[in-house]
Amino acid sequence: MKLEDLQGEALQLKEAQKTLIWFATALKGKRKNLLKKVEKASNNLLSTCNNALSVAKDTLDQTATQCKKKVATVMNERKLLKLIAQQLLSLHLLVDKSSTRATTGVGNNMQCKHLHRSHMVSEPIANAKPLERWD
Hints:
mainly alpha
C-alpha cells in the first residue's frame, strides 16, 4: 500500500508541476504585455510633458518679449515726459522773465527766486491733459 500511496502522490506532484508550468507561462505572457503597456503609457506621458513644457517655454518667451516691449515703451514715455517737463520749465521761465521785464523792467527774474524749481515743473504737468498715443 505504501507503493501505491507514493505513486498517487507522485502523480499529484506531476499534475501540480504541469499546473505551475502552465501558470508560469501564462503569467510570463501577461507580464510581457503589462510591461509593454507600462512602457507605452510612460512614453505617452513623457511626450505630453515635453509638449506642455514646450508650450510653457513659448508662453514664457512671449511674455518676456511683451514685458521688454512694455518696459521700453515706459522708458521712452518717461524720457518724453522728462523732455516735456524741461521744455515746460524753460517756457515757464521765459514767460516769467518776459512778464517780469515788462512789468518791472528787471531782467534777472528776481521775483522768481523764491519759487522752487519742482513747483514750477509739477504745476503745469499736473494740469496738463494726457498725451494721445500715436501708434
